[in-house]
Amino acid sequence: MIRLEKRPQPSGIWNAAAPVLAVLLTMVFGGLLFAALGNDPVEAIRTIFWDPLFGQFASFSRPQLLVKGGPLILIAVGLALGFRAGIWNIGAEGQYILGAICGAAVGLAFYPSEAWWLIYPLMIVAGALGGFLWAMIPGLLKVRFGTNEILVSLMLVYVAEQLLASMALGALRNPEGMGFPGSRNLAQHAGTANPEVIAGTGMHLGVATAFIVVILGYILLSRHLLGFHIRLTGESPRAAAFAGVNPGRLILICLGVSGALAGMAGLFEVTGPAAQISIDFNVGYGFTAIIVAFLGRLNPIGILLAGLLMALTYVGGEVASLMLGLPAAAIQLFQGMLLFFLLAVDVLTNYRIRIGRREVV
Amino acid sequence: MDLSAINPVVLVASLMVAATPILLAAVGELVVERAGVLNLGVEGMMITGAVCGFIVAVTTGSPLLGFVGAALGGALLSVLFGVLTQFLLSNQVATGLALTLFGLGLSALLGQGYVGVKSPTLSPVDLGPLSDLPVVGPILFAQDIIVYASLLLVAGVWAFLKFSRFGLILRAVGENHDAAHALGYHVIRVRMLAIMFGGACAGLGGGYLSLVRVPQWTEGMTAGAGWIALAIVVFASWRPWRLVLGAYLFGGVAVLQLNLQAAGIKVPVEILSMSPYLATILVLVIISVGRAPGSLGKPFHASG
Amino acid sequence: MTETLLGIEGLTKAYPGVVANENVSFSIKPGEVHALLGENGAGKSTLVKTIYGLVKPDAGRMTLMGAPFEPAEPRAARIAGVAMVFQHFSLFDALSVAENIALGMEDPPKPRDLARRIREVSETYGLPLDPARVVGDLSAGERQRVEIIRCLLQDPRLLIMDEPTSVLTPQEVAILFDTLRQLSAEGTAILYISHKLEEIRTLCDAATILRLGKVVGSCVPKETSAREMAEMMVGGSLHVPERHPAPPGETVLRLSGLSAPSPRAFGTALKDINLDVHRGEVLGVGGVAGNGQDELLGALSGEILVRPGMIEMEGRDIGRVRPNARRRLGVLAAPEERMGHAAAPDMSLTENAVLSAAVRKAMLARGFVRWGQARTYAKEVIAGFDVRTPGPENAARSLSGGNLQKFVIGREILQDPEVFVVNQPTWGVDASAAAAIRQAILDLASKDAAVIVISQDLDELMEISDRFAALNEGRLSAPRPAAGLTVDEIGLMLGGAHDMDVAHLDHAEAGA
Fold it and tell me: Of the N and C termini of chain A, which has fewer Cβ atoms inside 10 Å?
């Protein structure tokens, strides 16, 4: 008989090894899935994980890793702060949309000015503020009325999507767009473009910001009292209250920071890779970032690696659907599988598996 | 704009249809939560149910077999959640989210060949002259069988929890799993059964969407219905009959906004479309009085 | 009587790293009240869990009425006639008394019949109880009645009671003992687990003493002195704390009309508490569990904020001051629950040092934690309080209960508090650690700090308090000097018998 036995201490080795094992298991079972869909599993896995990095077209796909990884990492670091404290913001997608709308609105208000140094910082602030305020709704409702933040933040994603539609078709629509939905192209206008920091690498301002946020997040969690309080609240809320943590304040901080970071990610996206506010410029980064946060063990450094890995499955998935005709949904399933396996092998961090040794008299 | 085009009787009759998928999913989740488990994967199980039900119905030509398929699909997916949270002790919130993301991907993949296909659907139960009665006829006696089944299910769950021995054990497990274990009850077994029941109900709810409400298969067609079901369980303070109120209230908002859109009211379509979600938030804010089951969401590990 | 009801031979149960029971043998006769005596960690719980079918032994055998007895689960034990009253963890707050009782029975009668039988049994044994009430609203004593009635309804042949008196006032204990004697006279054997020696001497016919998982002796309690039993239990002589009484100093903490609702469901609100605490004194606060102990500690530590003017520290109003600001003023606290309240189980001892000592031990620099400082302090606590652990990087949950308690108490005391509030300082702690903790509390008071010790262990309070007050349903009695208080007086201060009554059967007294 197999049973679990709690370890006296969480295992440091398994904490690091679990994600690696989860990735390997996902490759095996993902391969089986692809085989079931009629593809050669080895080829499919190679196309997803190897070709974007070292294949024939790697010079095109490598920059895409940063372009796709940047927003994932930026959002996931913010989410991880809350998840660590047991505060579940799962509406990052909505905050991402609101950040994009607010930032773009500020940028468009200055149109056609090209004073980038004035306009773009204002847009970043507006983007962060938009995400922040959108996240404050579940935050304040939770603090004031005890409303469940999971449900409210998620409902607000659907509200945000409707708001986005209304903006793309109404207030922010390109007046010179001949009636097509969508705003002016922000990425091609000098005053509002999100430029690459190093040309040709895909490293735009948002990606650079993500890297900085990873470092700040790491320092916050490991060195700062606030980070300690976040971890403590997640471990045992009563001990946190005893330590003097004000739970309401912590809820607002965690939701606010994650909202602001998601909002910034939205702004960088809409002024860069997505180029304009359109009905469906958002592609679900806010949800995928949840997987990234867990895969990275809610640790900023881990999130950096996990974000890049997840970006690889996106890029590789596109390559695979182009080259092998693998359906896009298969990649989505593949990503979900990865999270499942991670949660499953996670048990090894805190428990030992014992086989036998439970015989009756 | 022509508000007179909105017929109140038709409105009420159709709000029951709109509410049924949510009611089904919510009654399942209620049982799961009363057993002390928080499964946030309702959305994922619903959409899996929707696609499974659709495929079975199209393949067999029988909508009723479709519902069986939907329930099985939802239940199978919930087993995954059960194994992870009950045996491998994973975090229930994270696992529920994973289930939703996984279910969305799985359903999109399964449903690939079925977009745009027409499925057989259910017709109203024939209750003869009763359905011709004014007002109450179309509302009470001209619905399809699943609408009646969903109300019966709520009644059944209510009676089960209140009067049956196993219902008492289930509530005990949800209230204090350590005490239940000390008295010799099988916490994990009870919870696995509850989780599977919840999965089957969510699947049925999804099946109702793809087979009756819409009736078609489109990716992501649940559009948050699973999450709304979760909200309604909180609104109902974990009591079965209040689920009906919550689900029908929600169905009312959803149907009314569609009617208003059709009537050409001078409110932007987007505002109308967001109203069900805003209504859900509002309801969550107003109702936060009920006491959740004592062990809700906590992992159970029998030591010794 | 020579026949044996329950026979246990060579029972052994090992957990990873510890042998909980090693070759344990003893037997119980029908109608006998048999004490199982031992310190925390001696293996008493594992043994009774084995008898009740919750734990499967690695080796050994049991017989019940001469037949082999191997209950695979509690249900089997109950069918065989074994019932158990648990110390914790067996009631459901949100369910009614009747539902709670039905859950502990094999085939409960219909609800109406069950309610009638509950009333009958509760009258017969002097344990009044309303079947329709919700258990979460009951007092600790009433909750225990639910458990006892649950057992009695099954006509058990063996009733196991795990530390039943820790939640009762002395008067309630006396009534419980009458009930148990009556049961014993009717032929029900009772396995009575306790570490309270005087109680065992009054009640029990035989005793088996466990130490570190082994049977180290047996005796007839009525013919053995408490001291002899204690030495068998501990395996040596006991250190009795020394105290150096000093005249009370000035008032440092004043509670005036302190009232506060409980933050928990089914908690107890504090009601109009008035109290002056002086420098250099130990004020003992006694009371049965669930009478507002957690809430009182929370109000003093700052976890529960109260209205202005209710709590003053040296004339300064601190009712709305948060925990860390109170620590800065010198008000420190140690809550009852070690795991998850006083300490975070999965965090290291260094991190747990930061938890409450960050402000007073200079572990912060502009909001950043000075981990070196924290580690040094954790080591200081480990050394100063003899905490057995490989080092401060170990997780709190890896420590034994006694060691973690020493760490938690030491963490506060080494910060030199002006006022120190502690709830259940020695709960679940072995005798030597308990003695060390009590000594540290007395030493702190002799250094001119004011100490409030909240405890359910009256012996402990009598040993270390200068003054004694009782907490009952959220109200605090006026404090009285501890010296010279009799058990009866204390019992009345604790609320007397809480409307329990004596068993309504004539031979109840005869059995005594």
Answer: N
Hey, how many other C-beta atoms are within 10 angstroms of the C-beta on A15? 16
CA C154, CA B142: separation in Å to the nearest integer?
A: 53
Containing A278, the helix (H) or strand (E) segment is none
Burial of C220 (0-12, 13-18, 19+ CB in 10 A): exposed
Neighbours of C429 (CB within 10 A): 25
**What is the per-residue burial (b if ≥16 Cβ within 10 Å, else e) of B209-246?**
bbbbbbbbbbbebbbbbbbbbbbbbbbbebebebbbeb
How many whole angstroms separate alpha carbon A84 and alpha carbon C272? 39
For the stretch A225-257, pLDDT in tens is 999 999 999 999 999 999 999 999 999 999 999
Is the minimum CB–CB distance between C207 and chain A shorter than 8 Å?
Answer: no
Asked if A266 and A131 touch (Cβ cutoff 8 Å), the reply is yes
Q: Is residue A252 part of a domain?
A: yes
Per-residue model confidence as pLDDT tens digits over B215-253: 889 988 998 899 999 999 988 989 999 999 999 988 888
pLDDT digits (tens, 9 = 90+) for C70-92: 999 888 999 999 999 887 668 89
What residue has token string 């690889």?
Answer: A312
Helix ranges restricted to H, chain A: 12-36, 41-49, 51-54, 58-84, 92-109, 116-145, 149-169, 205-223, 225-235, 237-242, 247-270, 285-295, 300-323, 328-345, 347-350
Question: CB-CB: which of A223, A235, A359 is closest to C344?
Answer: A235
What ipTM was estimated for this complex? 0.87
- Residue B230 has its nearest CB partner, among A141, A151, A335, at A151
Kindly tell me the burial class for residue C254, based on how many C-beta atoms sit within 10 Å of its own C-beta (0-12, 13-18, 19 or more): middle
Q: What is the CA radius of gyration of chain B?
A: 19
CATH of residue A170? 1.10.3470
Domains and CATH numbers, chain B: 3-124+140-286 (1.10.3470)
- How far, in Å, CA of C7 to CA of C60, rounded? 11
Phi, psi of A282 (to 5 degrees): -80, 135
Domains of chain C (ranges; CATH) run: 6-238 (3.40.50.300), 251-349+387-481 (3.40.50.300)
Minimum Cα–Cα distance from B178: chain C residue: C89
Retrieve residue A288's tokens: 């995928």
A4 touches chain C (CB under 8 A): no
CB A123 within 8 A of CB A192: yes
Domain with A234 in it: 38-326
The rounded Cα A225 to chain-centroid distance in angstroms is: 25
Torsion angle defined by CA atoms of residues A80, A85, A89 and A92, in that order, rounded to the nearest 10 degrees: -20
According to DSSP, the β-strands at A351-355 and C158-162 are unpaired
Structure tokens at C47: 């043994």
In this structure, is residue A2 part of a structural domain? no
Q: Which position has the token pair 């086989």?
A: A355
Q: Is residue A230 part of a domain?
A: yes
Share of chain B above pLDDT 90, in %: 53
Phi (first) and psi of residue C23, to 5 degrees: 50, 50
CB contact under 8 A, C93 and B175: yes
Which residues of chain B neighbour A162 with C-beta distances below 8 Å?
270-271, 273-274
Shortest distance, CA C486 to any CA of chain A (angstroms): 36
Instruction: Find which of A4, A238, A253 to mutate to test the C interface (most C CBs within 10 Å of its CB).
Output: A238
Q: For residue A89, tell me if it sits in a domain.
A: yes
